[in-house]
């Protein structure tokens, strides 16, 4: 199976990279008593874990958004 990497693939990769490195994806942890959430997964080959916190934000429209970072 041959693979061809073109300009559209590069643009998609760069857009994904920007999205993954932009807020609200990455945020500094809050050490104000906000609980941390640890999610883990493992198999015979790998183990991974994610340390998160839930953040509640009120938008200018009045809607409340809860995100995990």
UniProtKB/TrEMBL annotation:
Signal peptide positions are none
Question: From which domain of life does this come?
Answer: Eukaryota
The chain positions of domain Reverse transcriptase/retrotransposon-derived protein RNase H-like read 5-55
| Name by which UniProt lists this protein | Reverse transcriptase/retrotransposon-derived protein RNase H-like domain-containing protein
